[in-house]
Amino acid sequence: MNQILDTNFNDNSKSYKKNNLLKFQFYLSILLIIILIIYIVYTKFKLNNQEKYSKSLLQNYGITKLYSNFVDDNDTNLYENSSIIGIIEIKKINLYYPIFSSYNDELLKIAPCRFYGPFPGELGNLCIIGHNYDNNKFFSQISSLKINDEILIYNNLNKTFSYSVTDIFEIDSTDFSPIYLFDKTKSQLTLITCNNLNKKRIIVKAFVK
Hints:
This protein is α+β, with helices and mostly antiparallel strands and 209 residues long. Helices cover 38% and strands 28% of the residues.
């Protein structure tokens, strides 16, 4: 009889512990889901704010360009004294952003940045980097471009440079050859972003038409 009671007690104890474990796992799952939702909402909110700030820079840049009508085209100080060297537009993927003259983590969160090379339209390889958020912002869609697609760069002197895509490929993150190996007698453009799936870099090469 005592053996039967002991067995029932042990079974009830195990069942109680199991129920408690299941409850703990359930509440932990709920907590993790809530944290994940908060993180997603916060990330989206922050990204939208960065996008709004980028658009406000474009509006202010438009006002600045009005003053550039009274500046000599040979005045390179207009570049050197400005943190924005122009605008990049790719109509096919609805891309339209200012271009910062230099780069760091904070600037890259706002708009594409010049990583290497000359100013728009000059001889050499103008390399522009931008984030890939796997959505429709910044450089997330440049991998969908095709050969001969048009990329427009507007500089601070009210000039427009039309580039035609000549190549699209991926490289390892340690490969810098598309940046430093180029024809110095031509004006070319290199767009760079990350492929978040395989940790490689997406390269889009283009030349002035």
